[in-house]
Amino acid sequence: MEYQAIKGERVPSLGLGTYRLTGKTCAQAVETALSMGYRHIDTAQMYGNESEVGRGIAASGVDREDLFITTKVWTSDFAHDRVLGSTRESLRKLGTDHIDLLLMHWPPRNSTPLGETLGAMRELQDDGAVRHIGVSNFSTSLVEAAAEHAEIFCNQVEYHPFRSQSEILDQARGMDYLLTAYRPLSRGGVEGDATLREIGEAHGKTAAQAALRWLVQQEKVSAIPKATGDKHLRANLDVFDFELSAEEMDRISSLSG
Predict the structure, then answer these.
(1) With a cut of 50, which residues of the chain have pLDDT below it?
(2) What pTM was computed for the model?
């Protein structure tokens, strides 16, 4: 595993995304991933699977201090008291006394001020229930606005070879926050790309592995592909034994043009 250095903390460059994973499938995927060496798990209140994620973590036997767990507050819970209540419920479901990274899932969609939501998240941070605060799907200007109310550790956005996030990535490097890439394989779309296949084959890898390597090789970027079966979980993790050249990195970057 490789790590990204964010505000003095090491965050695993690759994690397991759990969007749309439910029930036994979700719990088993988390347990299996952790047994393989994953240490970064991403979930959200809106996913409705925090309890299953918690069961998978418990069944894995991995020490809690070795894990980096992210969850997200949904837009309907952005008011102060609802942030506190929903996060306490997340802690209960996940079976942990703290969350490593708590995100606002989307920019505010109602009249709740940004400072109210982030202020409540800061209270949780002060209480030790949350270690780091971040946002998801925020523009660079909204990140700047959020940073007036809290130290922003992360902005989680859709990022893959076909979707440039150059402005957010530049900001992440300037402000020292993590860009977490969700949907990093473009819902499987990377497998059909000739450039990614060619680059992957040059390293004895698949197109998907080339795409993931491109992401995690970038400073301040972590990727959270979703997978369930052993084969895909292992394949996604198997991206740390090769390195893309600068030319290969540029070729993949040009796919979003």
Answers:
(1) none
(2) 0.96
